[in-house]
Amino acid sequence: MRVLVTGGAGFIGSHYVRELVSGSYPAFAGAEVVVLDKLTYAGSETNLAPVAGKFEFVRGDICDPSVVAEQMRGVDVVVHFAAESHVDRSITGSADFVLTNVLGTQTLLQGALNAGVGRFVHVSTDEVYGSIEDGSWSENHVLEPNSPYSASKASSDLLARAFHRTHGLPVSITRCSNNYGPYQFPEKVIPVFVTNLIDGRKVPLYGDGLNVRDWLHVDDHCRGIQLVAEGGRPGEIYNIGGGTELTNRELTERLLAATGRDWSFVEPVQDRLGHDRRYSVDISKISAELGYKPQVDFEVGLADTVEWYRENRAWWEPLKERAQSAKG
Ligand SMILES: NC(=O)c1ccc[n+]([C@@H]2O[C@H](COP(=O)([O-])OP(=O)(O)OC[C@H]3O[C@@H](n4cnc5c(N)ncnc54)[C@H](O)[C@@H]3O)[C@@H](O)[C@H]2O)c1
């Protein structure tokens, strides 16, 4: 079996690759794994260093049809993580989001179709549904993306759906909630807050801090993706959630407690433009069909994550600098 993982040098993709090549997913044991990644500011081969030698790495752009055609040859399964993923960056400039998330996904879908790939898992986000006051989204909910990031992901989901409907490409879509865990790039809220607090610096809390997010440990997310890769029905969408909904204030309180800081380290800042109030996915479909259940307890997962950032300054310090310079 040959598995092509796009964006495998990023946060979630690298977790998936580390687990896959370490034998955590027995159905794919012994698979040849190829990582295709452009290594943008968000990607790093260091994320894959613990499993170096157990996979092939190709530096390339998913928007490049010749690179994609070459890498699709002989591939049985594609797991597509590669994306521009940071909402704030999509607000200050959205062109790269449209290029990678829309054109890049289309290029991969076409490449997979041409090569006769047997299964394609397109990793998406619950942000495509917009914002919800009460209740949770099922997979049939209308798409109402509010940021350029989520609009570009919704566009890629529609292309994936269309390649299934038009060409019969065996593509399944996953839509997950907010991930956390080790190796998350220090521009997202948990790594920014943890690393700032470890260093005794303030943390910026958007608006009134009452926006609600459902937190999903990256290990649970990757387990859900693997279930879809093994048994998801082509043409279907599967929500993947973690089951821990918290306001950003509640999350901040927990991070302050975990790092021994108090509210004097919190600096309220102007709210993000178009900030979605609440995300909440209904995971009954993937639970019933594929037996998915989040396994990482949030308290334990968060404590482990904080500990990981404490122990891995050499990993995040240069990336934080890179994040700053990539902004300018
Ligand atoms: N992080 C989350 O909480 C979250 C939540 C929902 C959905 N997702 C989705 O999961 C996927 C992975 O997210 P992540 O947090 O690991 O992202 P990330 O930003 O950490 O990693 C993205 C990876 O894609 C690579 N990449 C970017 N553009 C590329 C291109 N044109 N060609 C090849 N490689 C390219 C980058 O180098 C990087 O390694 C994305 O599709 C994202 O939309 C993430």
From TrEMBL:
Q: Which UniProt keywords apply?
A: Lyase, NAD
- Cross-referenced PROSITE patterns, in alphabetical order? ADH_SHORT
Against InterPro entries, the record matches this protein to:
dTDP_Gluc_deHydtase (IPR005888), NAD(P)-bd_dom (IPR016040), NAD(P)-bd_dom_sf (IPR036291), Sc_DH/Rdtase_CS (IPR020904)
Q: Which cofactor does it need?
A: NAD(+)
Keyword Lyase set for record: yes
UniProt similarity note: Belongs to the NAD(P)-dependent epimerase/dehydratase family. dTDP-glucose dehydratase subfamily.
Q: What is this protein called?
A: dTDP-glucose 4,6-dehydratase
Organism annotation: Lentzea indica
UniProt lineage: Bacteria, Bacillati, Actinomycetota, Actinomycetes, Pseudonocardiales
What gene does this protein come from?
rfbB
